[in-house]
Amino acid sequence: MKRHVLCVVCGENEFSEGMCRKCYSQRKHLPALDPLTVCFCELCSDFYQRTERYRSLEPILAKKFHDRGVKMLGCEVTLRGKKALVSATVRGRAGAIHKTENMAIVLSVQKKLCDTCQKIRGGYYEALIQVRGEKKDALLKRLHHRIPSRYVVSVVSKKEGTDIKVSSKRIAQKAVNQLGCSITKSYKLITRKEGKDVYRDSYAVR
């Protein structure tokens, strides 16, 4: 005769670990996130961790949950001073079952300028784009759409064209390469950092 094991909580048939499915589900939870601190730039409104930056907290949270084997289905974020209050809906495996849960999470938020905004505020730039020639107005318009405003240190109009100072070499090179025009590239040594020469890129486009 088969012996039926009952749930130690409610007396229903056992599902796992001495509990029925309902009681088991109520007591088994998805793995929570470890304490998390993110940085928020008050100038460009980006969130960032080390070299990674995001326009919102959602991608950061989704990645952290993914690392725990949990999928984030959605979340709502409320910023309050140095805290971010998060209500997240997540789904994953909890013991012997798959389940969906709502989690309340409190993140620490450090408000400070990101590296890019620090460079811009200090007038530092890694690349100079000099727009010249008969097509300069059209090229300038295309560059305006290809360089995010937060990377633009300054735009100076001159008789012969326009100079654009860009805080990131990578962003400047990517924008220039997409123009499909004549490009002349040069370099200028501006300083030494940790024993290495640091150069500024210059692009003459026409």
Question: How would you characterize the overall build of this protein?
Answer:
The N and C termini lie far apart (about 90 Å). The chain has helices at about 20-25, 60-65, 115-120, 135-145, 170-175, and strands spanning about 35-40, 45-50, 50-55, 70-80, 85-95, 95-110, 125-130, 150-160, 160-165, 185-195, 195-205. It has a six-stranded mixed beta sheet, with helices on one face. Strands 8-9-7-11-10 form a five-stranded mixed beta sheet. It is built from five helices and eleven strands. It is of the alpha+beta class.
Whole-number radius of gyration? 27 Å
Pattern of helices and strands? HEEEHEEEHEHEEHEE
Give a quick account of the main beta sheet: strands, pairing sense, barrel closure.
Answer: 6 strands, mixed
Briefly note the structural class of the backbone: alpha+beta
- Our measurement of the CA-to-CA distance between the termini, rounded to an integer number of angstroms, reads 90 Å
**Uncertain residue ranges:** none
Q: What overall form do the CA principal axes indicate? A: elongated
